[in-house]
Amino acid sequence: MKTRFAPSPTGFLHIGGARTALFNWLLARHSQGSFALRIEDTDLARSNASFTEDILASMGWLGLDHDGDPVYQTGRIALYKEYRDKLLADGHAYHCHCGPERLEEVRRKALATKSKPRYDGHCRDLGLGPAPGSVVRFRCPEQGETAWMDLIKGPISFLNDELDDLVLFRADGLPTYNMAVVADDHSMGITHVLRGDDHVNNTPRQILLYEALGAGLPAFGHLPMILGPDRKRLSKRHGATSVQAYKEMGYLPEALVNYLARLGWSHGDQEIFGLDEMVGLFSLEQVGRSAAIFDMGKLNWLNSHYLKGLDDSELGGKLRPFLEEMGLDAHDPGFLAKAAGTVKERGKTLREMAEKAAFYFKDEVPLNPKEAAKLLTPEGKEGLRAFLAALPGLDSDEAFDKYLEEGAKKIGAKKGAVAQPIRLALTGEIASPGLFDVIRVLGEGKVRARIGRALEWKP
RNA sequence: GUCCCCAUCGUCUAGUCUGGUCCAGGACGCCAGCCUUUCACGUUGGCAACACCGGUUCAAAUCCGGUUGGGGACGCCA
């Protein structure tokens, strides 16, 4: 079994493309076959090498390795010409001299009569030769139907007269999508073509091309689309869609891959899958047929699940770039790990955790003025001084809790009344990781310094 | 408009092929309780779906037909 992922470098690798890549990869790895990467860069105007780099980097980040070097279509033009010439020689293709104006005219007329716009076959039997500005078209059968057993949707069929004489080679001498795909999939020995739903109506055209070429057919499967919350095809206006954007927001590749796999594929009630486990379990039979809406909430849940599985130093290392991006000094791995441990269960993404851990790394934490006004009253400051005095004895969670309890009893209030001024002084806010953890991570020196600054605070 | 595809809780889905074990299961989210020094985590419980109409059958979420709804494609883009 040989599969491939064939993105065009006209944009970043997006969520939909990543899922197509994942399923192709899974199918190949499950069957111990191979998985090829092909860059479809025949659209010279829109293709860009930086997008190719993004695609490669994103695939690597997700852990989807391909076999062999990536194949670039622009390096295979001679091959496509061979296929074209064979089609021409066998009478399955012809030269067409129709210009854009005439084509536009034909399209307008079709729309006017409420039928499907398609080429009218004007040059089909004119026996024209190549000429500047001319294209090569496929001679599509006018009768019969083209059908296949779709790997995921079951039987699909099209009447041939719905299809028109598609352009195989453009006026610029480069192949169009369908020509290049067929030539590549055939010459590369691809056995299973898994692609997005949006390609279903290319499939009958490609099958007809294979047949005209006298070539054997690969199996075709079409994955349902991924939609935005408005049920429209996922796009930029739904927010982040590129894989890199998710990386930058602080998602773990294992979370994204797990989420993408569950979007359309299932294995009973199981929700958590590692890449290796998926390889063993993957089956096209369990791939759904209907479109799915991308749900950030569930991705968040999976991300925090994987985040919780990281040990402190691992998490610290992943947090570091996010902290540094905020201009903080996070070079000390030991401190980083301790700080990371306290925010592990307090964020859905690395970015969110870094924000919650930022106070550890600041030389001076800005005190939330509104809360300071409420908490750093004369009584509050008295509590801080008492805390400072008791600090040397607070060497365990139990001791600290006992301190809070007794302090609360003394002033006839709840433990929070004692804890919150301390929290504000140490973290700048009234929500933070566990207070004793904060004290432990910060160490006595920093604790004293921060309490000292809070004591100097004035409204 | 034409063609193609799809249809189970708000969302992802199990169950559909091989009708009965499903007055439909799990997960996310949501709501309530518990835990608690804050925020979270955790935990317990709860709300919530077979699009509609007809047919086949002793029996239909499961099979068939239609309707409605949704998506996709109609490029010398891929």
Please tag this protein with its features.
18 helices, RNA-binding, three-stranded parallel β-sheet, three-stranded antiparallel β-sheet, mainly alpha, elongated, 459 residues
Summarize the biggest pleated sheet.
Answer: 3 strands, parallel
The total of beta strands comes to 12
SSE order in H/E notation? EHEHEHEHEEEEHEHEEHHHEHHHHHHHHH
Structural class estimated from helices and strands:
mainly alpha
The percentage of residues in β strands lies in 5-15%
Average pLDDT rating: 95
Strand order of the largest sheet: 1-2-3
Q: What would you report as the Rg, rounded to the nearest angstrom?
A: 31 Å
Spans where pLDDT lies below 50 across 5 or more residues: none
Write down the oligomeric state.
Answer: single chain
Number of helical segments with 4 or more residues: 18
Distance between the first and last residues' Cα: 72 Å
Question: Care to give the gist of this entry?
Answer:
This protein has 459 residues and is mainly alpha-helical.
Word description of this protein:
Strand 1, helix 1 and strand 2 form a beta-alpha-beta unit. With about 450 residues, the protein is mostly helical. It is elongated, with a radius of gyration of 31 Å. Helix 3 packs across helix 5, helix 15 crosses helix 17 and helix 16 crosses helix 17. The protein starts with a strand and ends with a helix. The strands form 5 sheets. It has a 3-stranded parallel beta sheet with strand order 1-2-3, with helices on one face. Strands 4-5-8 form a 3-stranded antiparallel beta sheet. Strands 6-7 form a two-stranded antiparallel ribbon. The chain binds one RNA strand of 78 nucleotides through helix 4, strand 7, helix 5, strand 12 and helix 10.
